[in-house]
Amino acid sequence: MNNKVILALLFCFLLVASNEMQVGEAKVCQRRSKTWSGPCIHTDNCNRQCMNREDARSGACHKSGFGAACFCYFNC
């Protein structure tokens, strides 16, 4: 067989194989921080505390009731 034909067949095989592969995305769950106290004003501080103290993926301030609370995000 010609090298160009082999290369073309290999390329087609790779295209088909890449379309068949499923990408697994981790689901993210949120919960109110268990270590944060007081209102959450700076998301950066909440994010740092969630990652350092609660082994979370990230954290952010969100409106909760009349103020804002720190919420941490974890892989479900």
Shape: elongated
Determine the fraction of residues in helical runs and give it as a percent range. 25-40%
Round the mean pLDDT to the nearest integer and report it.
83
Number of strands: 3
**Main sheet record:** 3 strands, antiparallel
Secondary-structure element series: HEHEE
CATH architecture: 2-Layer Sandwich
Counted by DSSP, the helix tally is 2
At the fourth level of CATH, the homologous superfamily is: Knottin, scorpion toxin-like
Gap from first CA to last CA: 51 Å
Q: Could you please say which CATH topology applies here? A: Defensin A-like
CATH class: Alpha Beta
Radius of gyration: 23 Å
Strand content: 25-35%
Domain module count = 1
Spatial order of strands in the largest sheet: 1-3-2
Low-confidence stretches: none
Organism: Capsicum baccatum
Pfam families: Gamma-thionin
Domain Knottins-like: 28-76
Protein name: Defensin-like protein 1
Task: List key phrases describing it.
single chain, alpha+beta, Defensin A-like
